[in-house]
Amino acid sequence: MRDARLTHSFPGQLALSIIGLLLSAALYSSGLWAAPSIEVQHPTVRAVPPGSETTAAFMTLYNPTQEDRVLVGADSDLSEVTELHHHIMSEGVMRMRRLTRIELPAGQTVKLEPGGLHLMLIGLKQIPAEGDTVQLNLQLDNGEVIEVLTPVKKVSTEMMSAHEHHAH
């Protein structure tokens, strides 16, 4: 009797599995359910002391595709504004500049790091403490938005100093 029930339900289970597989393939090929075109590695938001109004986010962005992409914006519930920034050395002084875009060339890696390219979170709504997680939304030139759950960590002054004195 048990074998008869298994045999009887098998065609129904097989049909449901096939329908699920076809639906998944349709969603993936339509772009409604697809892996992000840019891979985000080692994301970090800098922990800051109470009273701080800004912090920064760092990460490595890898573009495995054969098309150049451009990071055109970002946002987060943690801050009023999130901007793309870069540190540049000008007349022996490190200066921060706002960018409208960060190029992500096909097949290449771009690092957002202290002393270089980074995301600046301005007008903090709460103070990010070590161990917290912050959601960042990265906006690409093709309309894609990549949601990144980003751990908050302390960024050492030694790490910052090494990067700030490095010419880019």
From TrEMBL:
Source lineage: Bacteria, Pseudomonadati, Pseudomonadota, Gammaproteobacteria, Oceanospirillales
Any matching Pfam family: PCuAC
Transmembrane segment boundaries: none
Listed Gene3D superfamilies: PCu(A)C copper chaperone
Protein source organism: Terasakiispira papahanaumokuakeensis
Coiled coil: none
Name assigned to this protein: Copper chaperone PCu(A)C
